[in-house]
Amino acid sequence: MSLLIDYANNTLTPPEPIPSLMQGPRFSPFSGELLSAPSLEPWLNQVPLREGQKTARARQMIYRAGEILDGVPVICDGWAARVCRLSNGRRQILSFILAGDLVSTNAVFAGHLRFFVEAITAVRYSYYGRADLGQRLAAQPAVVRALLSACLAEKEEIDRLATDLGRRRADERVARLFLNLRERLDVRGLVRDQSFAIPLRQQHIADATGLTPEYVNRVIGAFRHDGLIEIDRGTLKIVNLIQLQRVADAA
Amino acid sequence: MSLLIDYANNTLTPPEPIPSLMQGPRFSPFSGELLSAPSLEPWLNQVPLREGQKTARARQMIYRAGEILDGVPVICDGWAARVCRLSNGRRQILSFILAGDLVSTNAVFAGHLRFFVEAITAVRYSYYGRADLGQRLAAQPAVVRALLSACLAEKEEIDRLATDLGRRRADERVARLFLNLRERLDVRGLVRDQSFAIPLRQQHIADATGLTPEYVNRVIGAFRHDGLIEIDRGTLKIVNLIQLQRVADAA
DNA sequence: CGGCGGATTGAGTGCTCTCAACAGGAGTGG
DNA sequence: CCACTCCTGTTGAGAGCACTCAATCCGCCG
Questions:
Q1: What is the pLDDT of residues A125-151, one digit of tens each?
Q2: How far apart are CA B30 and CA B150, in angstroms?
Q3: Cα-flanking dihedrals φ and ψ of residue A85, to 5°?
Q4: How do the domains of chain A map onto residue ranges?
Q5: Interface test with A, best of B34, B43, B147, B155 (most A CBs within 10 A)
Q6: Pairing outcome for strands B116-119 and A235-238
Q7: Residues 194-213 of chain A: which lie with beta carbon within 7 Å of strand D?
Q8: Which whole number is the average pLDDT over A230-251?
């Protein structure tokens, strides 16, 4: 809903300016202390969004790989996904994008992206103008750090995904996806009593975990049978968190 | 050998300063034109490396996930790998690091990394001091852009890896790895007559492609049998590039 | 009611893994 | 120079995880 939400810190208040330890002769976002906790959204909130939000229906493509991008897209409401498509119709979901998320920090710096962005639910989205963003970046050095930090966090997230896809079994991958989503939604206050709304079709889960929908179904069935989770009309409840984490194998 | 090598552009000459289109009231690396071709090394070359190179023997760990990192490590000679390790001894190689490569742009901004760095061959490596790097970054805004650009390129590379691991079969993955390495080495002038030195054990290839060494062996055997490649004492020759690309399925 | 998208289930297949054995090569110590 | 060991590559047999194809079921919506 509100772009004020900070998914990295467990707080909704705008952060204090980071005390600078800069020693260089002039502004440098790098010579000071190292980046720590990423917290991008509170700063982005000070940047005006372009007039006029766009909307997309579920399953609609919001952005196609390679298209010119003259703004930085943000998902305002709903779920979307970064998707890599290849011949044969095979698809890999690289990340889920929740309300308030930049589609990718790459869009801030690059004029086009290498992946597709697809609406999962109905989605409202908008753009930051690059000029507006640039002004804000110039005016507030801390934003640069926040942006970089977000970028690094994205990289680490993909590293984790690659490891999961390369070296984990199906049940581990699905469990980790559920736990990952729970964590992201929890920060936004969208988890109540270990249950949360999850608008994903099993096809989405399959594309995110590198499996087939049928097999995802069997894995979920096993989880349900073992009392780890319950799923009912788009709501996922984690019944046995400990056991699910054990399946996910925290490593 | 030389850190002047630019693996992104097919040129060994230091780039011209990028003409700035900045319009902001003061320095901003972002309000100008968008990032285009990444070319980090020529600038890094102007930054002094710390005194005293370190060396590591093959198979030795250079950096352990989580360790404090007070400099930015660079591989000067040899091959290394970014490795994610998890319980059960499973390993995933996230990328290969060649001579002249930063281990990861993350190291410029973060005090510790989430992955291991492991020597594949004997390796000479060193560090950029963060203070030195920071000074250079402050003095030359273009370096910031180059650094960002390299960071984005790394992200895209991992996106590709994740897609391969999630949605491609064994033979496609191995073929793509070979073609990827060929491309990187070609830029450095290390490919002659479609053959190049490849110091990887089949275990490394397995860890990079999410397979087992035995199965990698079978895939390579099939490639050899089909006349796609030849391997002899650490040298890989791509005999039938077209066909290998077809297996890799450019998508 | 009919149709559609999605979930579920079954049967069979096969890609990839596991386990095991063996061969060759490089280094090492005697 | 030889014996030995370690590492790596190679190959075989068998198992199993995940896929393919297909049918059915269910909830929702027009």
A1: 999 998 888 888 888 888 888 888 999
A2: 15
A3: -115, 140
A4: 4-15+168-247, 38-164
A5: B155
A6: unpaired
A7: 210-212
A8: 92
